[in-house]
Write a structure and sequence with these properties.
about 55% helix, five-stranded parallel sheet, alpha/beta, elongated, 5 strands, 2 domains, about 260 residues, single chain, Rossmann fold
Length: about 260
């Protein structure tokens, strides 16, 4: 039953992701404008709104303001005097399509999650690292993200016995559930969750919802001290979309009890 509800939630979240994109809003407005073309004034108004939506969220200033909002209040609770039982690195770091195409693990802009965990392990600040993250509907023979990243750490010199991969989770809720099971089975008490700043509030909420209160190391901060310009940019549209989806995800996770 738990798996069924998880599958339904995952499917609905993918659909919600599409509707939370400013580009999707633009397309929907243009479609409605085309359908109402006989009502010229309303159609033109909708087309103008579509154009304004695209320009607004493609603006670097708007994207940066949203990023600041998403990262506001995020504080790390990492304790430099503690040797943690395990560092928990949350997935969302690997580009699976690019990895399949190239035959090599392709790490995206959230690479700080893995790099900071590597640095802490090398410095002796943790006994183990748990990498939590899989991808649903993997093609036959493809590796879960956790396995790919575990191999990467071993290639960088981390002893294989220190690296644990959990490749069944498909979202942040399942990251927390599966990580709690691994921690209980291994007797881990002190955990440090490493994830991107924008993702940290939802991640911590999910771990708290399953009865774990880990420390946090927030990385991958992306809010800037100044904007790069005011002309529309595809990168700014992507940033706006990512933040809007994360903010909506926080609301939805709390509403359904997945996060506290």
């Amino acid at each position: 039953m738990w798996r069924y509800h998880a599958d339904v939630f995952l499917a609905l979240s993918k659909l919600l992701d599409w509707f939370l994109s400013p580009l999707s809003w633009t397309l929907l407005l243009l479609v409605v404008a085309a359908l109402l073309r006989r009502r010229a004034r309303l159609a033109w108004a909708l087309a103008a709104l579509a154009f304004a939506t695209l320009v607004l969220f493609s603006n670097d200033g708007v994207a940066n303001a949203l990023q600041r909002l998403g990262e506001r209040g995020v504080r790390s609770s990492f304790r430099a005097d503690v040797v943690y039982d395990a560092i928990v690195v949350l997935g969302g770091i690997v580009d699976p399509a690019a990895s399949r195409a190239s035959g090599e693990t392709q790490i995206d802009e959230a690479a700080d999650r893995l790099l900071r965990a590597y640095e802490l392990l090398r410095a002796g600040r943790a006994r183990f690292v748990l990498i939590s993250g899989g991808v649903g509907n993997l093609p036959p023979g493809d590796l879960p993200e956790a396995d790919r990243l575990a191999s990467k750490l071993v290639q960088w010199g981390i002893p294989p016995g220190q690296v644990v991969a959990e490749g069944s989770s498909r979202n942040t809720r399942e990251n927390a559930i599966q990580s709690s099971r691994v921690a209980a089975a291994r007797g881990w008490k002190t955990l440090l969750v490493v994830t991107s700043a924008i993702h940290a509030p939802r991640a911590l909420g999910c771990f708290r919802a399953v009865g774990i209160e880990p420390d946090l190391l927030a990385v991958d901060f992306r809010a800037r001290d100044r904007e790069e310009g005011w002309l529309p940019r595809a990168m700014a549209l992507s940033r706006s979309t990512d933040v809007l989806r994360e903010l909506a995800g926080r609301v939805v996770y709390r509403a359904v009890g997945y996060a506290r």
